[in-house]
Amino acid sequence: MDSDKILHRRHAILGCLTQLPRKMLSLKEKENITEFVMHELCKPECFNLEKAAYFVDNPDFDCLKGIVGIWRPEVYTDGDDDIWQDPQSFSAHMQGSPFNQTVRGVMRPSLRKNNYSDNEVVEIIGRTLHMTNPGYYAWDMKHDNHGLLVYEKQCKDGDSCDLDTVINGLSLLAFCPIF
Questions:
Q1: Cα(81)–Cα(87) distance, rounded to whole angstroms?
Q2: Residue 2 has what pLDDT?
């Protein structure tokens, strides 16, 4: 990818990420704000994730819980900005998303507490979610929780962005309630 394209891509990601906190505050009373944030992070203009699932692993409570899943064929298509203008419609859509419900149905003992490596965790989750080439990002959260985003790796032009940018964006999920 040439330097102009890289610069344009980084600018688009930055635009998406800088708007998210304000959008999140607009729905501060919604329990499922995590779904809204994941939808934004997975958009082509942001991290361009075709299939992604967010989990929280809490070793203290011996629990790995699926929080939200986004899969592009099931994504909300009534306009991307409409999710913030019509949150009830988006929420209803996410309740009907089979992939999201599969992710939300994952509840198992903490893989960190039981000494699984991140790679082993990703392999287990990837199989559960029928991902052929799973990748992941992991980050520490408050209360000794650990965030984990498992996604389907794809080799498309325009997908590249640096690790710090992705982790900074995904860290916004830690400010969302776990519902």
A1: 10
A2: 79
